């Protein structure tokens, strides 16, 4: 049995996700209590969004653990697709939370209620700072590990920060405006739901592309051609295909060589091209080389 794919990257992603889960548990309790006692639905909606963070982060954690498993007889290309699947679950959960918040906000706008308490602003300001720090740190891990699930988890934290920021603005308007402005808090929650849906799309689109084996971003043709042409005997690249699976990239490459060389020499050139690509691009897990006669 082979060793798991990129265990260090998977472990980093799992640790960052667990940190987010622990912090979100605390934030749900703080925001929920402050929103309930302080008459702020925007803050309660914010707590609900953090609660979905916990659930989806668990999905991300499971997805990362699954993606890091070694290839086996039933999964010869590994289990990497579990990672973008986890990201898609996050996106769907965000949409669900946004719809729930929007519906409740509209209901509250239509019903008179008390102005939120001033101390809720202090809670929200602290939440914005904590969530933005979480977003930046986890997003950095996602970028370094090239993990769509970790990036999705990071953007979930950013959406929570946006929700808290809009709630802060809404409550401030309600407090400054006085009577007649009580619903500013609910309008803020409604606006936050639109931001959350936007972030859900931001998460969903690249993850869905990965599931569909969409060509990853970057000038792969130029990079692969530069590497391959550095191998003696290679005349050029006929065509290529690249797909991302979890933390890894798989490449199919058609290399052009002289049609007069022996089969064995063509075979050796193919191995050299593969070795050169694996050496230059550590994120590539496997390369399938097809030799084309010139």
UniProtKB/TrEMBL annotation:
Transmembrane segments: 16-37, 43-64, 85-106, 118-135, 161-181, 187-204
Record keywords: Membrane, Transmembrane, Transmembrane helix, Transport
Membrane topology of this protein: Multi-pass membrane protein
Domain Cation efflux protein transmembrane: 18-212
InterPro entries: Cation_efflux, Cation_efflux_CTD, Cation_efflux_CTD_sf, Cation_efflux_TM, Cation_efflux_TMD_sf, CDF_Transporter
Location relative to the cell: Membrane
Domain Cation efflux protein cytoplasmic: 216-294
GO MF annotation terms: monoatomic cation transmembrane transporter activity
Gene Ontology CC, one term: membrane
NCBIfam families to which the protein is assigned, alphabetical: CDF
Family: Belongs to the cation diffusion facilitator (CDF) transporter (TC 2.A.4) family.
Protein name per UniProt: Cation transporter
Organism name: Larkinella rosea
């Amino acid at each position: 049995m082979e060793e798991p794919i990129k265990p260090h990257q998977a472990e980093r992603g799992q640790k960052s996700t667990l940190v987010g889960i622990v912090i979100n548990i605390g934030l749900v309790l703080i925001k929920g209590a402050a929103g309930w006692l302080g008459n702020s639905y925007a803050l309660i909606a914010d707590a609900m969004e953090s609660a979905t963070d916990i659930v989806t982060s668990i999905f991300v954690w499971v997805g990362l653990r699954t993606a890091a498993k070694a290839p086996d007889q039933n999964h010869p290309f590994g289990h990497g697709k579990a990672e973008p699947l986890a990201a898609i679950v996050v996106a769907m959960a965000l949409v669900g939370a946004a719809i729930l918040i929007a519906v409740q906000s509209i209901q509250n706008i239509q019903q008179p209620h008390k102005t939120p308490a001033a101390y809720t602003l202090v809670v929200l300001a602290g939440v914005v700072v904590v969530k933005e720090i979480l977003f930046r740190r986890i997003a950095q891990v996602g970028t370094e590990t090239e993990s769509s699930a970790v990036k999705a988890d990071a953007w979930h934290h950013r959406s929570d920060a946006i929700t808290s920021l809009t709630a802060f603005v809404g409550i401030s308007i309600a407090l400054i405006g006085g009577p007649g402005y009580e619903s500013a808090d609910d309008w803020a929650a409604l606006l936050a739901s639109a931001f959350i849906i936007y972030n859900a799309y931001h998460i969903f689109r690249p993850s869905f592309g990965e599931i569909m084996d969409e060509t990853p971003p970057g000038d792969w043709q130029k990079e692969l051609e530069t590497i391959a042409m550095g191998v003696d005997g290679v005349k050029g690249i006929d065509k290529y295909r690249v797909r991302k699976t979890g933390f890894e990239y798989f490449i199919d490459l058609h290399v052009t060589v002289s049609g007069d060389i022996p089969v064995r020499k063509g075979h050796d050139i193919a191995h050299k091209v593969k070795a050169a690509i694996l050496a230059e691009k550590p994120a590539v897990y496997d390369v399938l080389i097809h030799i084309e006669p010139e």
